[in-house]
Amino acid sequence: MESVEQLLERLAAGVIRDSIGADAPANVRPCGNPKFGDYQVNGILPIAKARGENPRPLAEKVAAALAAALADLAEPPTVAGAGFINIKLKPGFVASRLPAVLADPRLGVPAASPVRTIALDFSAPNVAKTMHVGHLRSTIIGDSIARTLRFLGHRVITDNHIGDWGTQFGFILSGFKKIGPAAKHMLGGQELSIGQIEQIYRKNFEDAEKDPVVREAAKMELVKLQSGDPDTVDLWKRVCDHSILAANKLYKRLRVEFDHTFGESFYHPMLEAVVAELKAKGVAENSEGAVCVFFPDIPQLKDKPFLIKKSDGAFLYATTDLATIKYRVEAWQPGEIIYVTDSRQKLHFQQLFETARRWGHPDIRLAHVTFGSVLGEDNKPIKTRSGEPIKLEQLLNEAEKRALEIVEAQNADLPAETKREIARVVGLGAVKYADLSQNRINDYVFSWPKMLAMQGNTAPYLQYAYVRIRSIFRKGAESGASSMDGKSVVLNDPAEFDLAKFLLRFPEAIELATEDYRPNFICSYLYDLACKFSVFYERCPVLKADEPARASRLLLCQLTAEVLRKGLDLLGIQTIEQM
To answer: 404: which strand partners?
Structure first.
């Protein structure tokens, strides 16, 4: 289904071509100031500049021609400033669009064309370590990007690139071997927590700092693992399986799924060949016994070589990431690979992407979606009182606990199971939305009272807006006044017209969110939608209105609910029927 913006852009482009002989995009965008109109044609300025002409006379000529072309859609266009053409939609046109948008499973959002294959790398925790608040942003931002791109129709392949290889496993494995034969039994059961595995690693690492014998034992375990010693590999697999199982419980709780979970170990057999190929192609070269990629032609990288093999023969994250690109290209043929990590890895990905281009992948778009830190009230990275990162499970538990306290206070008569389910949806939704509503490149301050507030730009406010709409239909069903069938839409009140126009702008929010992978544009749209619905709800009676206003307003309510539900779903947030 063509969006209003696309429709206006197509019609305006035709008018520009026919009226002033310019075959150029119309560049239609929402009008910055509502009092001037709903949309603005910005395509005249570049045409005038290229011709060396005054843009305003050209704009006036186009506006006069547009008046005829848009007669059924909009009021006569007006010209403002240096050639901007403002367009105000007519209530009749907006009303005519609403039933089709409601009937459209995509709610008026056009399907992507062309469809792309996109590999999406996000979350990426380390094995044998408890997931903490630092993993939250990558996980939920990546999940929202995947949901949105799939909603548009793209083929998205999600990959959780876990850290399951490296020097830390020498300390983990030697620590477990100290325990003896019981280690395998411990790792085979459910009673061992991921926190206990992490404690074994930390204890052995601390011992190795003090005792050379312990340090040497850890090195030997790493050598055994890398050489494929059966007992060592078996113990390593048990540690990995236990860790992944623990992580998957959190992912299930967050409603996050991956198509693949390939750890660094998956690519280890490929690393030697990757280095050899990069050297053979002249991309990498020997340097003081190591192998590096140099960037003398790139000012910001010319003094920052990309080390892909150490002088002692060890490989690095850089080597693994290059092998990962090679595998993804060969296995999935993506047109784009997206990495969702914190901004501290910016240099690494600049080097990685440039190396990949020189290696022979210039046509694949490589995108690094960065994000800032989660801060405490002291504006420092959020941690426990002991200075440790807050465990993700503890954070989610606290969210549900606080949400349950609110539910208990407001709905004490509900069954206990119902209250717990409401608290789960509201609590987890609040945590996700508080993060996703921020511009991802910025740090943000974590605040329980703010994120769980029933007013303001929060998930509970949006979820309650949905609940309020659903209650209208429940009451209408009881009184037999909930039918929308066979009724024409009328938009006589300014509040219902304003709401209706905004509902047609859902595609624009999705477009903005995918242009630079910023879910906060969806959040902003949903919040504005809920606010406009609130004004409509206060000013326009629904069930008590006479026909045709009642059916028309019920349709507005239904479409608002559907857009809220779908928009929240794209953020990974659920809706509920009561709060």
So the answer is: none
Domain boundary among the residues 233, 254, 275 is at: 254
How far apart are alpha carbons 394 and 399 in whole angstroms? 9
Which of 254, 269, 284 is a domain's end point?
254
Concatenated DSSP letters of 559-574: HHHHHHHHHHHHTT--
Maximum Cα interatomic distance, the chain, rounded to a whole number of Å: 87
* Domain annotation covers residue 321: no
Q: Measure the N-to-C terminal CA separation of the chain; round to a whole number of Å.
A: 34
Structural domain includes residue 301: no
DSSP state of 135: G
* DSSP label of 389: B
Measured CA to CA in angstroms, residue 301 lies from 232, 285, 304, 459 at distances of: 40, 16, 5, 42
Considering only CA atoms, which of 499, 491, 492, 489 is closest in space to residue 535? 499
85 domain-assigned: yes
Size (the chain), residues: 579
Is residue 311 domain-resident? Answer: no
- Is residue 25 reached through a cis peptide bond, with omega within 30 degrees of 0 on the bond before it? no
Q: What is the CATH number of the domain that holds 20?
A: 3.30.1360.70
Residues spanned by the domain of 61 = 4-89
**Sequential pLDDT tens for the chain (579 residues):** 899 999 999 999 999 999 999 888 889 999 878 888 999 999 899 999 999 999 999 999 999 999 999 999 999 999 998 889 999 999 999 999 999 999 999 999 999 999 999 999 999 999 988 898 889 999 999 999 999 999 999 999 999 999 999 888 889 999 888 877 666 666 665 556 788 888 888 888 898 889 899 899 988 988 899 889 998 998 899 889 889 999 999 999 999 999 999 999 999 999 999 999 999 999 999 999 999 999 999 999 999 999 999 998 889 999 999 999 999 999 999 999 999 999 999 999 999 999 999 999 889 999 999 999 999 888 888 877 666 788 999 999 999 999 999 999 998 899 999 999 999 999 999 999 999 999 999 999 999 999 999 999 999 999 999 999 999 999 988 666 656 654 579 999 999 999 999 999 999 999 999 999 999 999 999 999 999 999 999 999 999 999 889 999 999 999 999 999 999 999 999 999 998
Instruction: Give the number of domains in the chain.
Output: 2
Distance between CA 80 and CA 87 in Å, rounded?
11
Cα–Cα dist 217/223, whole Å: 10
Flag whether the pTM goes above 0.85.
yes
Sign of the alpha-carbon torsion through 568, 569, 574, 578 = positive
Residue 166: left (phi > 0), alpha (psi -120 to 50), or beta? left
